[in-house]
Amino acid sequence: MPNRNRIAAVLVGLATLPVTACAETILFVGNSFIFGGNSPPVQEFQPETVTDLNREGMGGVPALFEAFTREAGLSFDVSLETASGMNLDFHHDQKAALIAGAWDHVVVQGYSTLDADAPGDAGKIIDYSARLARLFHAANAQVEVRLVATWSRADQTYLESGHWFGKPIETMALDVRAAYDRAAAHSSYIRAVIPVGQAWNRAIADGIAVRNPYQGVGTGQINLWAADNYHASVYGYYLEALVIFGSVTGYDPRSLGREEQAAAQLGISPAKAVALQ
Fold first, then answer.
1. By residue range, what is the domain housing residue 77?
2. Inside any domain, residue 117
3. What is the pTM of this model?
């Protein structure tokens, strides 16, 4: 009888323990636009909070995403596989064994001009995003695969050598978005396109960010581009991470507010953090 009482007491105790939900897993696949190229504070941001499958010690946008989820009270186990200057074919052909796993979420980002050898050509993005989505779906039929439509490059728009030279700064981002929309329509395994480039366009249209960095930055404005007018600045990557956070989690990035901690660590003022949110 005493033994039964002890067993009953243990069972009651177990029943009152809080239930801890398992962390959702997410993999980021991409290039320097994911790991924070040309922006050391982002690239080196809290690498200990994420798993770099290539063991290069990157933090980048995935670490910013992870920080946002913690602040929101969410639990995500974040991994990344990135390679500078590479498109989706590289990750599929060279890294399949490394990235093929039962992920809950996968965020995929391709080359900034869609194709390094043929800027504006969506063929490779459409083909290999579908191949990667099939790879992830084979390991977990419930995986949510999202594609990141990135920003207009100032060097591709304002320099004569650029594929989008002479067009409004918004155009490249819209063309990239259209290409990723075609890719998503091509595969039933792709859940959505994340509109990072359009968020940049919105920041420019609202006067938060400078339109042409070659003409300097106005008082009170921010520059979304790094010094090369190609990669993102701290502000640009912060905005990218916010958009991805909102898309994947369904949380409104504005809920992070003025006291958002990653912004403070990156040197972004509370007012500018709120403006970007």
1. 23-276
2. yes
3. 0.93
